[in-house]
Amino acid sequence: MIKINKKILTCGALAILLGFTSCEDYLDVKPQDKLNEEQVYNDLYDADAAVVGIYGKLMGLAGKYIVLNELRADLISPTRNSSPDIEELNTHTVSKDNPYANPRDFYEVINNCNDALKNFRVMLENNKIDADEFNERYADIGTLRSWLYLQLGMHYGEVPYVTEPIEKLEDLQNENLYPRLRLEDLIKELINFTEGLPYTDPYNQNSSLVVDVDGYNTAKFFINKEVVLGDLQLWNGNYTEAASHYKNVMETSSNGTDSYYYDTYRIIYNSPNTVDLGVEYQRYREQDARALINSNTDGWGSIFARDQDDRWNQEWIWSLPFDSNFAPENPFINLFSIQSGDYVLKPSQRAIALWNNQNQLNGFPYDARGKIFSYLDVGGNPVVKKYLYNFLSEETQMPVDVFNRDGRWFLYRAAKLHLRFAEAANRDGHHKLADALLNYGIQNAYTVDGVEDVSDIEQTNLPFPYNFDARKGDFPFYRGPWYRNGGIRGRAYVERAEVVGDSLIAIENNIIEEAALELAFEGNRWGDLVRVAIHRNDPSFLADKVYEKLAAEGNPEANSVRARLMSRQNWFLPFKWENQED
Amino acid sequence: MISNYNHKLILVAVLAIVSVISCSDPWDDHAKMVDANLNEKLNIRINNTPETSDFGALLIETGYDSILSSAKTYTVWVPTNEAMAQVDASVLADMEDKQLFVLNHIALTSYSSVTDKDTVSVAMLSDKYLEFKNGNMIAESNVLTADQYAENGLYHIIDKALTPRRNIWEYLQDEAASNAMSKFIMSLDEFDIYPSDSLPKAMAEKSEEIMFADSLTNSYLLNVYNLNNEKNKYTFFLLEDEGYKNQVETLKPYLNKGTTDSTTTYASYFAVRDMAFHKSYSRENLPDALTSRFGVKVPVNKNRILEEVKLSNGILFKMSTVDVPLEKRLLSTVIEGENPSGFSQGDKRINTFYREKASPSGEPFSDIMVQNHEVPKFGIYYTANNLYSTTYRVYWRAVNDIQENTFQQALRIGGEFQADGTVANPIASLPYTDVPPDDYSEVFIGEFTLEEAGNLDLITLLAANTAVNGQNTLTLDYLKFVPVIK
């Protein structure tokens, strides 16, 4: 019996011991490399960290953003190195396991946005941040989410609109749990939400998020809320509202104390012997092709090459830098470089032809924005250059340092803003204004030859948002805020785009073609084609352009692709992906 | 106790079974190498295969069995003993020949007969390239047994030995004693066709094959094609002596160099330089005309083929003759306006425009225009190489598209700089010719005659003799010198 007792005792003691040690504390170890919910969102700096973290995550979408928006449209083609997945996008025959068609990455960032938005609200309730701090951050992340949804909408046609954080992203594929919105309905929801956000300006210059870090100023990292509102309203067909939002950004320097009052976001003409962002030849040597101003600090190409200086800030509205020293890696060198990348994508023959159909004002039979600035020829292979300016040597066009892969994601700039404003104005009945901004600027279009007193001319005499004062006179003296505006084509030194036929359609065609010449490879093309095709209720607007790209390169599927794209439902990618572990 | 004993028995039995099962891990069994072939190196496998033992013996004799026993991966195309028996004795005359013979059967890395490419160009250790077609043929030998494997690679058994072939250059070297054309080409080892040939020749000799594997020691290799290069394929026409001499004689009047010897040398060079072509064409595939590196379209008459010689880097045709008509042989010289060699004064860059324009029909062109320079008789200098000793008809295309008025410019051929910077004793001064606005056509502007063939270092496009801007403009898309057949 004693023996038995001993055994029981031992067992009991062990059990008790186990019971103690297995208590909560023992098993509930906090991970040392991650934060849990109670540890974040405690003060303003946690909120800032969340914002910065979301933008860091967003940058992981850069490569996909360019691939989807350009390859599915008409300005980019696959190369001989491209994978079948890339070919599928090119011919609009995407299978459901195509990794580029997987919307999950977008929803990961959206889920992060939703989580941050929810917690910002909690922080405000608990007085961990004040109302101003809340408004800035909430509006920023809220707008970014709307921008992401607009991207999803234009690529997938119908997507679930989720505004609260969810546990399992895979559930999004279940239409019973998350019903899907059509693109048009989605945009209406996005307008409702985004117009209701409490703050529309960029972060205040004194904000804790606007700092210089690792050689970059962060002010232009963050999305510009007004341009997103403008884009949403433009997609929705509310042209006056769209123009109003765009105009607010165009007038950025009118409010406040910008020392470049006449220059910021106004697309100014080229002046001799100054640093400009236009296509410009050395003065009096316009007939000399070798006198083209073409360096990383001056000329049209410098838009993509220059450091974040004053001129950079006068053009760029939203841009995120990639730095070799930090993740995520710059995806563009791999996509585009033939010398040390994979050279997956190249300019399409159609894009090249568009540029070569232009004439410069000196009679040169090509648009310098094409073969000089947007792409280059490496041993007979066209290579997208816009993303490689800092990677290639100015002199030799060879990589300077293959390990230095700094670069930028180009998201929004003044030229795009002006083209979008012109599109809205044109649709709103202001054809002359739209044509002026597209061609040679306000003053050129509204002046009267030989009149010295400009008091009553050189301005639109229209109410906001179509009010532009470009007066430049000396007797009496005028310098209207828009007197330096030189127009998109004026800045690019090309002959004016003529209006043939119906003003609305002709000018809109000109604007969309100009967007190709000016903004090629910057990830706007698919959206432009879908938007205009919807506004015109004419699928051929999109289908024909994709057809021309494929036909120009002898793709045997050109005709069948055109036929497919004539039905709107075939524009969009399948909203499906293979489930994977979280 | 019995039941207890039984229990123990069962326990022991179970333990025994467990130990037996656990002794043999099925995964280990799966991964274990059971194929004995994979334990043997290539040289052993080849030696042990009865039908390839002769080649195996040769491997040992040459000492190359050692490389096939190394850790690198090789592919060997092994001739059968019957195939070895048919190899000409001269091919295996001495040790050097034997080594080359063996190396011509071995390639680094593995080339399986299963591949998605129909033809693979294989670099053999002999530095020759052989074509492995569809996995069942290499060069002209059929694969009898494919994909035999060993620890360090593959071997295929073939029905015919891969006797190493000479390349075109080696063939020409061997023919030099009996063939005048080959002899002339080999003489270009010593003789420099162009003065600039001497430097690379000297470099090649000095480097002794260390810096440049295919050292270019001959003016033909330097200026035409490197026929010593195994990596490319060429077609070459080797003429019989009579046909060759006829060609040289027809060219002599156009390549007058002053002395008979020089004239013969250059006429010979111009005759032979158009006899080599890029890519190899077998007799069946020969087109009606082949274009030489210099743009001469050489008509091909298959009836003149005496012999087709297959060589390691292409095909050489022995021909009785190849008649190239002078109209095809003598090439026009085109000088692009935007590639000047200099200017009469160097301070007018600001007035010099390198333009990129298009004609009204949309055809793009590049040209040069010098405008508003205020210098009478301002000159743009050009050079031209390899001109013939004959009369040339001269044309230009000069586009005056930005002025309203007609201006004049002239062309001066040759001349010597004087101490005061002027040019004296030109070969010809063509008259001032109108350049009317918006004329995009090619205009005939005159003729000149060269007594000696060679280069022109000074061709001058001269502005009008006036300081008046607009009158002294110069513009030039291109000059074209068309040789006249005597």
From TrEMBL, chain A:
Q: Is the keyword Membrane assigned to this protein? A: yes
PROSITE patterns registered for this protein in UniProt: PROKAR_LIPOPROTEIN
**Where on the tree of life does the source sit, at the highest rank?**
Bacteria
State the UniProt keywords alphabetically. Cell outer membrane, Membrane, Signal
> In this protein, which residues make up the domain named RagB/SusD?
393-532
- Locate the coiled-coil region(s) and give their ranges: none
**Entry's localization field:** Cell outer membrane
- Pfam families linked: SusD_RagB
The keyword RNA-binding belongs to this UniProt entry's keyword annotation = no
Protein family: Belongs to the SusD family.
Specify the protein name: RagB/SusD family nutrient uptake outer membrane protein
Automatic annotation (TrEMBL), chain B:
InterPro entries linked: Adhesion/Biosynth-related (IPR050904), FAS1_dom_sf (IPR036378), FAS1_domain (IPR000782)
Query: Which GO CC annotations does the UniProt entry carry?
Result: extracellular space
* PROSITE patterns xref list: FAS1 (PS50213)
This chain's protein is named Fasciclin domain-containing protein
At the top level, the lineage of the source is Bacteria
Show the SMART domains listed in the entry.
Answer: FAS1 (SM00554)
Name all FAS1 domain ranges: 39-162
Q: Which PANTHER family match?
A: FI19380P1 (PTHR10900:SF77), PERIOSTIN-RELATED (PTHR10900)
Which SUPFAM superfamilies did the record assign?
A: FAS1 domain (SSF82153)
